[in-house]
Design brief:
With about 190 residues, this protein is an alpha+beta fold. Helices cover about 30% and strands about 30% of the residues. It contains five helices and seven strands. Strands 2-3-4-5-6-1-7 form a seven-stranded mixed beta sheet. It is globular and about 50 Å long.
């Protein structure tokens, strides 16, 4: 076993001064607001978004569907869970009949009263279509509507696409964090 350190950034946006991007779904996609019955679909989207990514090493729950199901239950049972900042991206297919969960984001209000983005993910076949921007903008509007103006998140430094997205939306880096992870030889 080897101990490795992963560099992560804590980022923040001030919604009182930041204008959010317009909300327009790409053709063939829909965004669904949180409902309890969608927990399994969120877990599947989360698993397929993260299972082959570096974050699965940092957070082992991402490496299995059951881990993602457990994580979704944990998030939604927190006292600060914010349904208005929790969204599911769904691919509807060309005929509007083929529903596939392909993106997810959750929001919570932390004990200090800040918004906190949890696990924004888009499955690989559906990336680069604006779904991450759309999910993030919907979640941020959910925080605004709930009276929360400062929202934070953490992102792994090697996830350059996510960092570009967050900076484009208006997030700024507050600090750098190093997360220790035990790596087991295969």
């Amino acid at each position: 076993m080897t101990l490795s350190y992963f560099k992560r950034f804590r980022m923040e946006i001030d919604l009182a001064v930041q204008e959010l991007p317009p909300l327009q779904c790409p053709e063939g996609y829909q965004l669904w607001p949180w409902q309890d019955r969608l927990l399994e679909a969120h877990a599947r989207a989360k698993y397929h978004s993260f299972c082959d990514e570096m974050d699965a090493h940092l957070f082992p729950c991402f490496g299995s569907l059951s881990g993602c199901q457990r994580l979704m239950r944990d998030i939604t049972q927190r006292a600060g869970f914010l349904p208005a900042a929790t969204w599911l991206a769904v691919y509807c297919g060309a005929n509007g009949q083929q529903f596939e969960a392909c993106g997810t984001i959750q929001g919570i209000i932390d004990p200090q009263g800040f918004g906190s983005i949890q696990n924004l993910g888009v499955t690989p076949p559906h990336r680069r279509r604006g779904l991450g921007t759309l999910l993030l903008a919907h979640a941020l509007r959910g925080f605004q509507q709930s009276g929360i103006h400062r929202v934070q998140l953490e992102v792994t430094a090697g996830n350059l696409a996510a960092i570009r997205l967050y900076r484009r939306i208006g997030f700024r880096t507050l600090r750098t964090i190093y997360k220790a992870v035990e790596i087991h030889p295969s």
